[in-house]
Write a structure and sequence with these properties.
CATH class of the largest domain in chain A: Alpha Beta
Strand content of chain A: 15-25%
Order of helices and strands of chain B: HHHEEEEHEEHEEHEHEHEHEHEHHEH
Oligomer: heterodimer
CATH architecture of chain B: Alpha-Beta Barrel
Helix content of chain B: 25-40%
Radius of gyration of chain A: 28 Å
Distance between the termini of chain B: 57 Å
CATH topology of the largest domain in chain A: Glutamine Phosphoribosylpyrophosphate, subunit 1, domain 1
Structural class of chain A: alpha/beta
Radius of gyration of chain B: 21 Å
Strand order of the largest sheet of chain A: 18-19-20-21-22-23-24-25-26-29-33-30
Helix content of chain A: 25-40%
Largest sheet of chain B: 8 strands, parallel
Number of helices of chain B: 13
Amino acid sequence: MIDPSKIIQARREMTASHPKFERRDEDAAEGGCGVVGLASEIPVAGRHLFDSLEQMRNRGNGKGGGVAMVGLDPEQFGVTASILADSYLYAVAYLDSKVRDAVEETFIHSNFHVDHIHEMPALETWENDLPALDTRPPDVVCYFVRPREDVLDEFISVKLQDTIDPNDREAASEEFVFHTTHSLNVEFYAKDGRTDAFVLSHGRDLLILKIVGYAEDVIRFYCLDDVTAHVWIGHHRYPTRGRVTHPGGAHPFGQGIDCALVHNGDFSNYVSVKDYLAQRGMEPLFFTDTEVGALAFDLHRRVYGYSMEHVIESLAPTSELDYVMLPEDKQEVYSAIQRTHIHGSPDGPWFFIIAQSEGTTHRLIGITDTSMLRPQVFAYQRGEVGIAFCGSEKQVIDAVLDSLASEDKRFWRRADEYWNARGGSYTDGGAFLFDVRPTEDGGKELVMTNKFGEVVDTHPSGGYGAADAAEESPLKLDKMDSELAYFSVLEALPHMEWPEALATLEAIESNALSAGREWVWNLLSRLLDRRYDTGSLRRSRWLDSVEASLIRTISAARHQPCDSFVGQVTLGHHPTPASGTQRIVVDARPYPPEGTDSLALELVALHKAGWKRFVLLHCRGHRFIGNGFGPGTSDVEIDVLGAVGDYLGSGSDGMRITMHGNAQDQVAQIHKAGELVVHGDVGQCYGYGSKGGRLFVLGNAAGRPMINAVGSPKVVINGTALDYLAESFMAGDPLEGGGFVIINGMRFDQRGEMLALETPYPGGNLFSLASGGAIYIRDPHKRLSDSQLNGGAFTEMTDEDWAVVEPMLQRNEEHFGIPLQRLLTVEGELTSPSEVYRKIIPVKSKTLHAEAAWAGHAD
Amino acid sequence: MAMLQDLVDAYKGKIVKPSDALLHKTTHLIQDGMNARAFGEYEKPKALGDARWTDELILSTWYMAETGEVPDKLNFKTGKSDGGFDRLDFQFLPESDWLEHSEAIDTKLPLNRRGDKKNKIEIDIPWYGGGMSYGSVSVNVMMSRAKNAKQWNSFMSTGEGGYPPELYELKENVITQVATGYFGVEEETIQAAPIIEFKYAQGAKPGLGGHLLAAKAGEEVAKLRGSVPFVSLFSPFPFHSTYSVEDHSKHLDWIETVNPKAILSVKVSTPHDVDMVAVGSYYAGAHIIHLDGGYGGTGAAPEIAKKNIAMPIELAIPKVHKFLQKEGVRDKVTIIASGGVRTADDIAKAIALGADGCVLGTTDLVGMGCTRCSNCEGGPSGRGCPWGLTTTDIELQEWVQQDWGAKRLDNLYTAMQWRLRDILRKLGLSNVRELRGRTDLLKYIGKEAGE
């Protein structure tokens, strides 16, 4: 590898020869973003990102959208496989097409052999067809280039002082490309604010495209519907300023060689990172924090030659308890990295998704910031084809799967796993790499590793093969009540193959005619929600089938209403309920996720029309469900299927909401009364500022659950929370009706068996600054330590405590089928509650000490 | 809990609601004392006031609150802070060009300029009452302000401490504040309000969140906020659900779902990039951008923060005004300024600098008897303000009776409106909205001229 100091010196000289560029007022400040990324064993066409990005428009504002693609199809660019692999794909955006000749003359032909020129097609009817676009996207020309030998020789001898190892010629050529791009961007983009042309990307087998608009319009405008790649990133930007005239500031950023970086969030230390880079000879030209992020990533990866683990550590440093938990040798390296690079490490909210072309490997990386201030979800599905995702919301992942499944039977609509990561954690580092690697037989293989380079098993058990249903189900369920039928299915399922399993679902569906839809609803919703052994069937695909059967049955109520269900026929259709128990079934898809015509407000209107019970189908990121009903809603009941959006059940005052699957961020914010049950995970800021009611989560909560809660909220989280649980919790005395959180710290294995997590709570901050309430945590082996508490203390778990905990766990059993007995069983032994659960109460802060002293003084 | 028990004991049984006789005696003593000083019957108290709120400003505010007229012997226009509003003056026309007294001068201010379907709200005067929470002040103070807001077809904000049930009768004139701790934020209180105010930061203490000391978080306060009595209550400095502008936009969408008619105000402090914050808020859907400069806040804000973190409001207003003009959206949004706005003169200057109107907090309190002693937390006893303003102590809070407080504010606003019209008249403007951004009508008074 080339001595980094040589590279940095050469960069310093280059930037010194350019004019200085200061961030001007006109440069757009960075805002938030929405992002989806995928890595797939088979090439994926651009159209599959379409719905996903469209559903996420509310995370952007139409003033910056972009995509990155890695692992392209050479034919679609008119090149051979070897040119695609070996030449740099030098993509130039021409905002003013008049400068093309000058760019080609001064930068392209003089520096490079050009193997091929591919002009990106453009949708010329964009003004009519793409109403959200008001600025014409740039013309993009892709030059497949290699540095000219003589020019590279000169670069090596003059800039790198001819001291490099001949084996480093490849590395020198990468640096040459980096220099050329920077100089081109200075000349045609930054100088005098001319913004005539700039380089979008310059990696091998990698392309970035961006516009002033929404990301799905990138796909439409550049006609990428059928263009394929193994790795895709789509990104909506939300620059705060109003007028944005060119897409230079949009993501992804491709300053690094062979990588494209997008980011959701906002560094609070942009200036510090910029200075850090300036000391190393780099000047940003686009003035967004994402650009400096991309430069820092490339510096650490390519110039310093760090392993991915160390690059990630340099960006998201490990601290607090996580650092302590690391082995000593790692601590030593990490602390050296932190000391050296802390000023180049982004602070504040950020989440990076990176597409990388690393030789023959196509890679997607997701890196979570250590404070977990941005929402992110990871997922994978492995059928005949392996595919992995990371994105801002679960629903955007589901939308891609939905689109893929509708065309290709090898995919189905539900990932095998979805999870949130904890940035800088000692267990997996909160960062994941999804590599699509070539296999010996010419195929591709998806391999997932964590920050530490450890391969994560992404091969769930169970067959996923789509088979035809058998003639007949082995079960005779039609005469059973739904409860008995449920247990019969559970008993038989582990011994079934796909044909029998599907036949059983068909039998259940057809039983609606005689037993009624309510029977099917009770049975299938349980099969959808609960954890149990699916035997030889892949769980995610089985649930996909169960959900499809359930939706078919309930949707039929649209044209054939029954006593139990009435379907909304058209948008805004408000039938009159026949009884107080009849449910109205609403298909979420035609409704926007927010705003005056939103699904949330449609539910409020239906409620005003007399409806009390709702079933929502096909949610696609619909936000604010259950909001706006106002006070006193104890007779309202809402069941939600699909991928719900943020703020589910926020502000509920009495209603009961059941989420049949994972929920997203801000669930149960300011929840006042009633019950909210989530048969899955919840996202960031669960129960923020809640005041009461009962909240149940089958899985995990992401960062910051139950902060600032007051009054009497009572919560059961059967998994764990990532960090900052119940910060500033103020909810009274749990023994006198106040609030509390029960953490069970459990997970389910593939057979549906409950197992205790390695630690019931992995975060370094628990119950910080709390002044009321309590945490009851299942921790029979005393894994939690005082160091995780900041303002809390362990105390004895008494019979009085159990008297308030037990009813909540009984209710938990009713909702999730998690036996109370099982929770009290430790290593096969039934154990007393006081030995299984630990109680954490607030202790007086120093501030309070001082006040009490004053008060005493006054007496 | 033993330690807290001391505090609780300090209250229980020892402090009671004052008898009618005691109430009569004390309120008359306080009120007579204020009047005597405002009317110049005594020398000005030596320790009264500070550079921003000088003794004359306090006494003149008391005078106006008592009489409804501006005083002729006291400076009721400016303080002596040596900067900002105190170094600005108006470029009045020659007296011959002044408008006649008989001419109607319009002081109305529309708050919703987006032209959407939400509430069309116009207030009679270009200012309203800023957020002071239940807990930081008493129900009597809140009710006095709300009653006066109704009188003036204007508003007052709840601050972040819940929505005392008494307020519902005046809900048409009450802004519900949504702040980082969500104290008192419920669908019911969101639906009750014609305006919802998001408090992202407070100019007096940006980045510090909220903090109500344990002693003031007594039983009634704790009940309304749903907390444990006599423990300190924190509001975090950020909204934990809002770390990004798209989160902010989602936040506004949430309120729209709960109360589709409410117009949205976004209260921010004044960091160096306040213009970016403002434009981001506008695009996210805000109707009102409320800029809170560094000089506001009661004595409860930490000294280290007050005046030292946020930008002075006099700098922030033109920065935002011009930026929004350049963006071409200035006429779609209302800019409200606060944080050091004391008098009608200050309001007129803020408007001339580019704001549409102002928010008053401390001025209201001074009108009801605040002496700016900075003892809002009530010193060792922790019972709160000795004048009964910033307290929920069952005895002390009675020193401010609702009808008296409302009347004082009504008088004060009458005098302030008169003065505002007086300024407009002398500038030849018949409408306060014409004053906006007219920096040409202001002049800087140099040190010498000002002395």
